[in-house]
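seq/struct pair 1
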Amino acid sequence: MKTSLISVFCMLFSLSVSAQWKPAGDLIKTKWAEQVNPENVLPEYPRPIMERGEWKNLNGLWNYAIVEKGARTPQTFDGEILVPFAVESSLSGVQKRIDDTKELVYQRTFEVPSTWKGKQVLLHFGAVDWKADVWVNDIKVGSHTGGYAPFSFDITPALVAKNNKLVVRVWDPTDKSYQPRGKQVSNPSGIWYTPVSGIWQTVWLEPVSEKHIANLRILPDVDRNILKVDACVAEGAATDMVEVNVYDGNQLVASGKSINGQAVDVAMPENVKLWSPNSPFLYTLKVNLINKGKVVDKVDSYAAMRKYSTKRDADGIVRLELNNQPLFQFGPLDQGWWPDGLYTAPSDEALRYDVQKTKDFGFNMIRKHIKVEPARWYMHCDQLGIIVWQDMPSGDKNPEWQMYQYFNGRERERSAVSEANYRKEWKEIMDYLYSYPCIGTWVPFNEAWGQFKTQEIAEWTKQYDPSRLVNPASGGNHYQCGDMLDLHKYPAPEMYLYDAQRPTVLGEYGGIGLVLKDHLWEPNRNWGYVQFNSSKEATDEYVKYAEMLYNMIKKGFSGAVYTQTTDVEIEVNGLMTYDRKVIKLDEARIREINQRICNSLKK
């Protein structure tokens, strides 16, 4: 009876908390919005490339206040906000705008589990846009700038036995400053969308030993059949040993060890399984940190044996290759926006849905367009077999345009602080995503938006990560650097330039619009490059463009990106509606032509 009463009380408490929160506004929402529970928001482990068994999720209802920039932390708050949804989003329960004169203050309390006694406690943020200052029990534990990469602080010295207070202050100037922001603008219209401010990915706690694995950098070498695992060890010593065990399912197939901070080179089995969109095989990794014969830390991870490169074919065309075989990489422009959560998907199921539908449509690649996703999105791409072209979110003078220049045109100059911030955030993003196998191409610039020192940035990107290709400026001012020439042409595909020394790709085309009345962000305002009145007409146009693209492959195209996965705000040129409730085009017809394109270079 006692257990039953406790269960009833917990259920009633949960219902009471849920009743206090509801999505704000009356705009369209996905089906997953109805399933959001403030007591269990995005409960999945947030860092799948380096997983530990113990952690605590801090997502849920926090206190919030919007204050003048620089004002003192308030004693009373404006209400509650559902973390990790941005303050401008419906799922935050707030849906308010802030500007560069305001700051957003978050506050909550938390308990540290008693089983963590003697451990260091790390406070992790998946992403906060843009400048975050963090206090625990009124002790400042750190600051971070950058809206797209994770960061963490060791908060152990600031903790008390019970009822710890956490305060986060965020300043986000959106388009009033130089920082990367992608499609966010103060006045959304056309291809520019609602601002996203504050915490927008999972906040969590993790206990670790003083000596622990702080990061993994995993690099497959297909040509030598070696998997390199570089474990960065906090408080490391020369006597530390890192042990890596590689599993195919439950079977141990390879292992390796190293000491003195050296990377572990694991010799993979002769019958190694390669990762590809048709066979996205992932090996399980178990990494142990051993000191004086004792395991002091261990993490679970995964890896794929795959290689991204380019090579000239028998016809003299330089092609993109995967695992030393030519592969035409074809996928949608994926903006990663949600009508209810903006930057944040309402659930992990929703996050995976877009990747799965991309696969269902017959694509083998996604261009992640001037946004960076939570780590689990890349895990889904790894698992489902989708190559990712990863854009750097644009900023500074975005969206101002210069006259198009082809090869050696004049570039925009940035201030020293803007340039330094770009380099810092781009490095953080590459570090964050380095070990995810799906990342095949880095894209530092898009369409001359904030583009500067292209050759230098492209060369530095390639030097920093030689294992990926570099697309120096997708559709932008073009220079003879990096690994490919990327053209943009709307609506129909066209090869108006060709590079005989690098692969030539079509980084954007299409934009076929179809308005579906009950699935619009703004019923009286919508936009597409071309618009049609029925699914059949839009599908016919898609197939017509795809046939044109197919015929250009033998003339020199080696990859292409169709605009786009979903409608976004007033853009109506998605393969799906913004609320993901309708697939707008004929999926079977799209899949058939897409697969023909993806398989066009197979021997």
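seq/struct pair 2
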Amino acid sequence: MKKINKMFMGFLISLGMVYPLQTYAFTKEETIYAKLDEVGKPYQREITNHLLVGEEKEIQDETKLKNILNLNGNEKFSFNGSSLIWKGNGKDIFYKGDFKDELPIEIEVKYFLDDEEKSVQDMIGKKGKVKIVYHFTNSLKNIVNINGQKETLYTPFVVTLGTYFNGKTNKNVTITNGKVVNNGMSEFAISIASPGLFDSISYDGFKGLDDITLTYETTKFSLNNVYILATPKLLEKEDFMIFKKMDQLYSNIEELQSNMDKIENGVQSLEVGAKSLKEGSYTLSLELGRAKEAVTVLKNGSITLENGISELRNALKSVEANLNTSNINTYIQKLTYLQSQNTKALNQIIYASKKTKEELQGLYENNGLSEYQGADETLLSIKNNYEMILLLEGNNAAINGTLEMINDLQKQISTIMGTLDSAITKIYEGSHTLSNGLYTLELGVSKLYEGSSSLHQGAAILYDGTLTLKEGTRSFNQNGIQKLSTYSHTMKKYSDKVEALTELSKNYHGFSSSNIDKTTFIFKVNAVSGNY
């Protein structure tokens, strides 16, 4: 048996015959009974109104019915224009009358025996595979303005069909959009439809909801009574909150998309900064190499003291000038800003997914998503979210390491430059501590050179990391956030239409008058037996 579309089932969970807030002194319900022949054409109908009166002594009721008959009491009535005036006595009033307007739901029934369309008369008493198709047409078309555009929407109706089969002559009963229950002797089939819903919302999952199809195998065909109930009321008052929640979700996803675009742009800027840091650290390392060589030459007496000191001073000035123009503090600020943006994006991903990192990790590992290349949107969303979280956390860890290394190097530079200044001063003063100073100077410059080499290596790693992060954020934005944003726009469009349908449902106030609180249509397709 074809299973009802999940989205439609969720849409109908909250279906009910609601009672809106009263603007009258009484509550009014109408029931329209219609008998149909085997192909769905009505040949007899009756309209009954029920007034839940309360303590009122006089009731002013609107009606379009003619030939009114009080069904359950002796209350008198009179007409005042289009109003019906009842003399009440505190009891509910039931009355019926005639009304000739066409019903809002039209029903067409077709019969097939062994895949060949036939009339019921030709099928009576025969054996074979039976298919019966009930097609429902909604005639209540409305032109509605949604977000500045005119849309064609149908006043929503929920249609329920029910019938039963003798288990001795019939088996393997199936029904679309419904369920079959077997009690051992008979099979009961019930189904739901919503004519016009697909035409209103244009969601593929609602295709086929204008029809209900019954199939079964029979050894002796006969047509049992089929009962069909239709009501225009869809959602309870508290269910309207879902639209506010969807609007909030839409806003959150829009904000997430905006922030993700900012992160992607920030990563591109960081790539430029990281490249400059890499090149600057390389230049710094070369200059410190020159200083290291100069100290070594000076210490070994390879050149005269004066030339050595001059070379050393020039090299150190180059180092100092390079340090002052390398904009390390700017790079630190960019790294810190990226780290905060990474953290914000990570939190937004977790918030949008409505799962903790641990829950995403469990779903990722349990479903083996590390190598997953399928098309399931839910699994792809979990895979993208968790892998992006790992990427952002890894990048933050790399940034932390780089920041710590830069901080240590700056401290070393500050300490060693002080030592260098002191040592050179002693050299110029001809201090007897020249030998010790040169030894200390050599150690200091060597450490500074080693630190600059580490900085260059770290900068190179950071640059490579920014390239990876750039590609990762671009991929995540395009394949994850942008798809999510597209889905949210689609759902916003659907939710706006559903909200408009709900308003049409609320504004339906009756078939035979405009002051009805509850309307129910009951159709009966009469049984046809072998004595037809």
